[in-house]
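worker-03 picked up job from queue 'complexes'. Input manifest follows; two sequence lines, order preserved.
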Amino acid sequence: MKADQDKELIRRVIQGDKNAFNLIVNKYKDKVFKTAMRMVRNKDDAYDITQEVFIRAYKGLKNFKGDSNLYTWLYRITVNNCLNFTSRDKFKTMASVADLTTPPVSSLTPESQLKESQLFEMLDEAIEQLPPQQRAVFIMRYYDEMTHAEIAKILNRSEGAIKANYFQAVKKLKTALKDVLGFQSKSGIVDGA
Amino acid sequence: MKCEDYKEKLLEIAENGADISSYPEVSKHIETCGDCRREFDELKALFGIMEKDKAREYEDTRLDSLVVDVNQRINNEEKTVRFDPKYFFSILTATAAAILILVMGTVNFTDTIPINNGYTYIYDDLTVSQLVEMEYVTDDLVGELYSEIDNESLTELEDYYLENYDYQNILSDLDDDELEYINTEITEKMKNIS
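worker-03 finished. Artifact:
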């Protein structure tokens, strides 16, 4: 049903119906923004990328063959845009705590909330330090729960390379947060998996 | 299994938040291997943080006006394309090249400037054959050029005409209707060629 609705919207956009395009933007903007935010960890950059994604989509919809669903196609554009963005070294500033809305429901005390915010900051920084490809693979695999095969298809690489990228990304994150992780295990702020 | 093999399995278990006791062999290994135990503890702690990070929601009030911003940028880009200097220059170049050929057709080259038979490009990326397709140069005229003008490169020919008829002067000689006609024709032909 959803796919049919999207096909209908695409058909209308191709016929020049800008309102249909606006419906597509409103439907998928939050998802695109979230993916971009996770990837670049900065609100301004994520917003710019989100705009760019929909502009490219608008230009490319005429050539959209419908082999995949619309969101998969937008996701692919988003990832590629983020990769191009990070490789252009346009990364501006780290996401500040103010960039993030209220953390997930938590029973932490104010003191430990501060620690959690600091943890997120450190995590943002550690993710930012990952090479673009590793970062993309890690985000796609962990946050978006995609399989190695799906990621390989989107990034046009082998599954083996994706697995290696993911493994390396985790290893680097673990190293970057080593001191914190040791502290976390003892303090009990993080309950563990 | 070696520790490296276990570490891969430990990553999978920690990532999925699985209970290690469900993996007796791995569980038994980390009881006796300090390195792998430490590795597993760190992975569990890492994915503990990651799990919280995964649940973070991102909001930006600008998203409310994203549609407006995107449409504005699309409109701006469309305007920019219409006035793209590169595109404009290519039209101007094609116009000038066509005019050059027209002028060439009215001159007796035999007595003045020969042309090299092997010369292919007339101006930028326009070839004689493309100009023929554009119908500004007929097959007969090209044949005439090739047969009557020898041994000198067309560059010299161009230089000669550039000295005597610069583009601005050529264009200024045309009235508005002629200019519009040539522009329209060449734009259409260029589209077909590209």
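worker-03 released lock.
Residues 107-129, 134-139, 146-153 of chain B have pLDDT under 50 and may be disordered.
Chain B touches chain A at residues 8, 11, 13-18, 41-60, 62-63, 66-67, 69-71, 73-74, 77 (CB under 8 Å).
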